Protein 1
Amino acid sequence: MEKRENIFLKKSFVAITGASRGFGRCMALKFAVKFPPNSVLVLMARNEEALECIRTELQATAPNITVLVRQYDQGKSDEGYFNGIFDSLLTESKCSKDDFEQVMLVHNCATTGDKDKTAIQLCDTDRVRSYYNMNLCGMILLNTSFFATFCDPSPSRVVVNVTSGGSQRPIPSLHLYCAGKAARDMFFRVLCAEEPSIRVLTYSPGGVDTDMFRDIETNSSSSSLRKVTNGMREDGKLLTPEESVADLEQVLEENAFDNAEFVDYFLRKFKPYADKYKQ
Ligand SMILES: NC(=O)c1ccc[n+]([C@@H]2O[C@H](COP(=O)([O-])OP(=O)(O)OC[C@H]3O[C@@H](n4cnc5c(N)ncnc54)[C@H](OP(=O)(O)O)[C@@H]3O)[C@@H](O)[C@H]2O)c1
């Protein structure tokens, strides 16, 4: 396989969605100190106040990079809502795309949907549609907006598609979520088939102690899922965002992943043990 350079070594324009809390917030705090000076980091989510707090924190820890805040709602379906977002961010940063060696979009934001219902109880048209507006359509339209701005193969282009084990196997009560993640993963496999110059990491962070995980632990209609998630917490198997982000950083540093193939925290950590038992 072609040897590729550590992704963090290039002066970059990086946008992270869902950066206001949880895994995305942690990624923003950790990534900011890894990219070279004069890189630009864009924090995106609905909660502008939370994003501004992170920007303030980063001004102390990463003074050599520019941090921008972009409030948006990925669930919006108004025509043209996503157009020009990255053009205006470039203008705001007083940079042109040629100022960067690399551009990167991290699709991190997600919701889990109506987990108090089973798949055959999903009857609310607006709720089902709005779930996919945010988790699938909005993600695709934001992605299109990004590549409309960064349309040339240079600077090099990277996408991190934050996925879940639920894209690979069914999780009771997370019907909308699993189907949405599977659709996103396949979307990026097609994108890579069409645009081989774009590097895509599809990364599943494992069970991470965030609002999303706590919500599933409490509110899933599946007693088996509540039991599994509560058990992970009790057994100390739940990861901190820092632990999972550290693994993601290693994957990006090594830059040896197959384009748009599923890379999973747990498989990476525990595969050597699984292989040992097979011998
Ligand atoms: N936690 C886990 O165990 C786990 C496991 C596997 C995969 N993942 C994946 O990891 C990623 C991060 O999850 P997390 O646990 O950090 O979730 P989280 O704590 O619930 O955070 C979700 C993020 O998404 C943003 N968001 C929600 N709705 C939005 C909207 N309409 N428009 C724009 N932003 C929106 C939220 O910000 P605002 O509310 O400010 O908009 C927040 O920053 C997700 O893709 C998730 O599927 C998580």
Protein 2
Amino acid sequence: MNSEQIKQQENAYLANTYSRYDVVVVSGKGVRAKGADGREYLDFTSGIGVNSLGYCDPGWVRAVSEQVALIQHTSNLFYTEPCTKAARRMIELTGLNNMFFGNSGAEANEGAIKAARKYSHRKYGESRSEIVTLEGSFHGRTMATITATGQDAFHKDYDPFLQGFSYAKMNDIADLKAKITGRTCAIMVEFVQGEGGVNPLDPEYVKEMAAICAENDILLIADEVQSGIGRTGRFMSYEYYGVTPDIVTVAKGIGGGLPIGAIVFGEKTKDTFEPGDHGSTYGGNPVACAGADYVLSRMDEDFLANVREVGEHFRERLLRTPGVAGVTGVGLMIGVELTDKKAADVVKTCVENGLFLLTAKDKLRLLPPLIITKEEADEGIDIIAAALDKKHAV
Ligand SMILES: Cc1ncc(COP(=O)(O)O)c(C=O)c1O
């Protein structure tokens, strides 16, 4: 099929849920994707935070291809090595206790919500089921996770919602305290909100929140779906805050490009799920886990230090770029506030000029592959600078 046929047939055969840029992507290597017309694009999106090692990292390709040729799937009725190896790495990297594999971020958060409710029901009775999340948060697209998501835009037309959720103002401890009741079983937060605008939580706020959780046996759930797996220059973004959540959810970057998500349980919650409580046909799929095992094998201190260093380079250069009002975020999870241009217009221009880029609310959002170099960063920032140039017609 040529590009025009792909676009036309997509409109005919796929539900109209996405507005896409006018590019048919066919291949990729490192930080560059190739379009059907042979044109190269520098990618500051990583497929929305997924391709943590870039496109087709040779070690990742080998791990996945070898596994797919060996056995592509069995089921959770049997043991498999890739699932066990990936889990062991995850537990060693987090210092948490055990984990459950699913297929996406929303699904991981669904499981975390279930586990939090079960933990509290068993200890305190079934009325203790409420979960506080934050305004501006994003936790997924399933019914439970859009309910958990603290943004009205995602709630339109889908009611009735799940009961037992309330939303506290970000970084406002008084409001958080006001939202907590005797029925609260968990607080679920992104330590760096992604879709909500690349906004990190304040350290003092997190300290108080963690203390409230510990004092009241309220579980602290960290949604690390976007911010985890090295994205911020630490393995998990909560590490910057010196707290240990009771449940951590991950997806996106852990698979390096294959669909996989996980719930990681701490000391309190490690035995909450028992056989029959939770499950997933595909969860722990050996091919996805072989990819995840390889991604996790790369997450050593040198790798993370490079994420921090290149992240700092991005920040410095972007702050010196005319049209940029501010830079938010941590490591290679970067939000760019603009002085006057509209983020969506700038992204469109950048795509036309060979750079994939994201928005988060009214900011530009950069989630480049974690292996990006300073030179590649500069190349993309030049394209952003050109799009922000007053002379440029966006
Ligand atoms: C913080 C966070 N949680 C959950 C999700 C949902 O993940 P998925 O799209 O894999 O279901 C996302 C996706 O953007 C996210 O950023």
